[in-house]
Design goal:
single chain, alpha+beta, five-stranded antiparallel β-sheet, disordered N terminus, disordered C terminus
Length: about 300
Amino acid sequence: MQTTYLALTFTPYDRLQEWLKVTGLPIALSILGALILARFVNWAGGRITQRIDDTYQQGDALVRSEATKHRHSVAQVITWVVITIIYVITAMKVLNLLGLPIGSLVAPATVLGAALGFGAQRVVQDILAGFFIITERQYGFGDTVQIAITGSSTDAEGVIEDVTLRVTRMRNADGEVITVPNGQIVKAVNLSKDWARAVVDVPIPATADINHVNDILHRVGVDAYEDKALRPLLLDTPSVMGVESLAVDQVSIRMVARTLPGKQFQVGRALRVRVVTALRRAGITVSAELETDAVGGEIE
């Protein structure tokens, strides 16, 4: 009787030990292996994107070739998809080790999927929109974009830091990170696709000699293109488009310059400084608005 009592006493412990060997240990190893593999994939994806960035020789995060930006975004998406697949396979393996056949979960999963279908429509919409954003190369990592969002009265503008199948992350001029679901994007304006254009509208008094002002602006464009600091940012000589608008006491002349992607703002400020200086030397007054825009516009 005493022997039987001791055997019954240690039976639960023996069963627990057997379960740990047969089921618990494989589950723990599967989860640990999935975590390690996911970390490795994340590390490998980071190394790949780092190599893509390092191969770009111009060294500016905003100025990237279109192929480089696309490869960077694709590498990020592939990393995310591979990690998701690893976790899904691990979850299925754990369920199988626990004795829950996957086939028996099909019917409950169908019912649950139908119940959550209406709530998951937005997620599916985000993923589909993200897929087309990446495959169509609408924008990529490092692009300067302006995005119109559903339900928002103001557009989000900044530099793209991350593009996944579900969301787009961007950082604005104030350093704030903006996360936008891809399905909520109504319109995306890429301000750094292939090349950009700096536009400078020069308001002058209506009594000024237009031809003389055009000559001064043309000379400003030639000098800017010959400048060692501005030349690497310009694709050609800034040109004078002519009169843009007329008012009772003011005429606006437009000057444009093709620049490297993302450099139109820096070039525009530098051109305003040169325009204000050149017109002052010629005795032509300009509006206070142009002078304000020109403050801080010198290229360092």
